[in-house]
Design goal:
The structure is a homodimer of 361-residue chains. Residues 343-357 of chain A have low confidence and may be disordered. With 361 residues, chain A is α/β, with parallel strands linked by helices. Helices cover 41% and strands 13% of the residues of chain A. Chain A starts with 9 loop residues before the first helix and ends in a 22-residue tail after the last helix. Chain A has an 11-stranded mixed β-sheet with strand order 3-2-1-4-11-10-5-6-9-7-8, sandwiched between helices. The first copy, chain A, folds into 2 domains: 1-130 and 299-361, 3-Layer(aba) Sandwich (Rossmann fold); 137-288, Isopropylmalate Dehydrogenase (3-Layer(aba) Sandwich), CATH 3.40.718. At the A-B interface, α8 and α9 of A face α8 and α9 of B.
Chain lengths: 361, 361
């Protein structure tokens, strides 16, 4: 069994910088550098900016790691990571691998970030495949976001993979949201265990038989309509379904917010809109993807946060803070512990390395 | 090759009643019977109410077909249809099979309606498996709803099935929405044809190679975020993904409408809310599932419309009208033509009859 990388802890970890891909995202490098400067100034988190020398604008004296190439949003993930070895994404992942950075953050091409992190940091021992964990808000419920995984790394999954996603998602919910005993649900097309595909039925069986161990509880199947209502702390599915569900959710919320903004912007509604917008603000804040800190790659031997492509400086501040705090708290080791067979049994079979993450961004 | 059933056309068809399952839905029989009476009164469509004698309330003299049993929302679809042979759902399907009704409508258990229709009416020649086609509105675009299929009948699909769903969905869009040349898209996790699962890649290849023929155009992959924006007339996917996407969409819209209603109902907003609600009305009308006429089962040798479980009388009026108009226009024959190999080639292999529809409701 592969050994985990030795990682600094405590103050030694805290003093290490978070490597930030300065060139990733729709508003890079401007918004990314601004966010990096802000998080360093306001929260005292060390940041290492990764990008082409002289092309990152006014970096305010932050330390820089130079990389001459940039991977774009439309680049093919696997090809780009192989060909652009001196890209900001690849260099950021190497900085984590080499112990020069505590964690990495990118708002760029999700698939390429996944590929770079996977190829440079590697997987944790025992992990069949890493997954993308995305927080889904539960507005008005007082509950932390629901962790959805896999949100797009693996279009095809086995039941053993889904069980590991459940274990990794539970470990993440414990660390990120301080849920001491997370509830874990399986996404399907009916609440009964007989509903779904052979994959969901087999996963249901394994989870119901206790695959999660003591630290989390399997609560059965949930459906697409259960998102946003805090029905479980973790929702597990394959990367194809998870990506479709996540984008459907994002798209419908964006549609509704856009339609509402258009209506409230009508001249006839000037006064009414002002009153309504003030009341809407708390809901809007809860739904704001910038507040969540971004998606997390789980199962890697290191911490990698992927912020939304349209990230503002505030989103970068949150992503860097989350990456820093989780790395200091030892997220990777917690995930490794969660998937480690308690009885020392062998690692599940079928451990083919996914060379090409399924989803773009 | 099996032959299609002989169907009345023109005035002979128009004079036949639509069989309405009086006992299906959350507000049955009251709302269903009220809707049936309304559509008969106002639109001159003949209706045959199917349900237990004396248990349907004031039927206003509409013709009745008596069935002593009722299939509930929580009944297992396949078992219920087999055991409750004298149920309103099964009798309604038999009325279509026997030429006593033009089409059937139910607001009850979707899986059971699918099973009853499939077992009693049978499939059209050449159809591997029927699918549930659900209209998704495209508010503000001026475009007709997007037809999503399969919305839950078949959790597992082959590429040949998805190609047929595309053909059947295009035939439906032509008849239902008078789109002369529908655009058809494949739901995946990226726009590039390389994205997705082996199933989506193979389906993409078949559709790109011209499987749709002359009557429709394949426009490539779409993603979950593309719903509500009128990106295509038909979106094809397997019944697991389609059901998750549909319920995610419904759930997020219901969440948002609920949150907005709560905010607009606050005492501090009384005046503002009145103005905003008036402006919101057209959007709400476009999103109203009652207006769409319900989901359609495509691939059956007959017309079956499934209205929402919470159907009001208005929803029943719309569902009966759609069922009547499409049956008179010859929907089943149009679907059969769409899947018939143009060169007279053999029916695609793999035609196992789905005994148990995948999704309940």
């Amino acid at each position: 069994m592969a050994r985990r990388r030795e990682r600094p802890t405590g103050d030694a970890a805290r003093s290490l910088p978070v490597a930030v891909d300065a060139m990733g995202g729709d508003h890079a490098p401007g918004a990314v550098v601004a966010g990096a400067r802000q998080v360093a100034d306001e929260r005292g988190i060390n940041v290492l900016l990764v990008g082409p020398e002289g092309a990152m604008g006014d970096t305010g004296g932050l330390p820089e790691l130079h990389a001459s190439e940039v991977i774009g949003m439309e680049d093919d993930p696997a090809q780009a990571v192989r060909r652009k070895k001196d890209s900001s994404l690849v260099r950021a992942a190497e900085a984590v691998r080499d112990g020069k950075a505590l964690a990495m953050v990118s708002a760029g091409n999700t698939g390429a970030a996944m590929a770079a992190a996977l190829l440079r940091m590697g997987r944790l021992p025992g992990v069949i495949r890493p997954a993308i964990a995305t927080p889904i808000p539960n507005p008005g419920t007082g509950r932390p976001p629901t962790v959805l995984l896999d949100a797009g790394a693996n279009a095809e999954c086995s039941a053993a993979m889904l069980v590991q996603f459940a274990q990794m998602g539970a470990a993440f919910a414990r660390q990120r949201y301080e849920v001491s005993h997370p509830s874990v649900a399986l996404l399907s097309i009916g609440e009964e265990k007989s509903k779904g595909t052979p994959l969901t039925k087999e996963t249901h069986r394994l989870l119901a038989e206790g695959a999660l161990g003591e630290g989390a509880t399997f609560v059965g199947n949930v459906e697409g309509r259960d998102f946003l209502h805090g029905v479980a702390d973790v929702v597990v599915t394959d990367g194809f379904t998870g990506n479709v569900a996540l984008k459907t959710l994002e798209g419908s919320l964006r549609f509704f917010i856009g339609a509402l903004a258009e209506i409230l912007g009508r001249p006839s509604l000037t006064d009414a809109a002002q009153a309504v917008v003030a009341e809407l603000a708390p809901l809007a804040a809860e739904l704001d993807p910038e507040a969540t800190g971004g998606a997390m790659l789980l199962g890697l031997d290191g911490v990698c946060v992927i912020s939304h492509g349209s990230s503002s400086p505030t989103a970068i501040v949150n992503a860097v803070t989350v990456a820093h705090d989780l790395a200091v708290a030892g997220l990777a080791d917690a995930v490794a512990d969660a998937v480690a067979p308690a009885d020392g049994a062998a690692v599940p079979p079928g451990a083919r390395m996914p060379e090409v993450p399924a989803a773009g961004r």
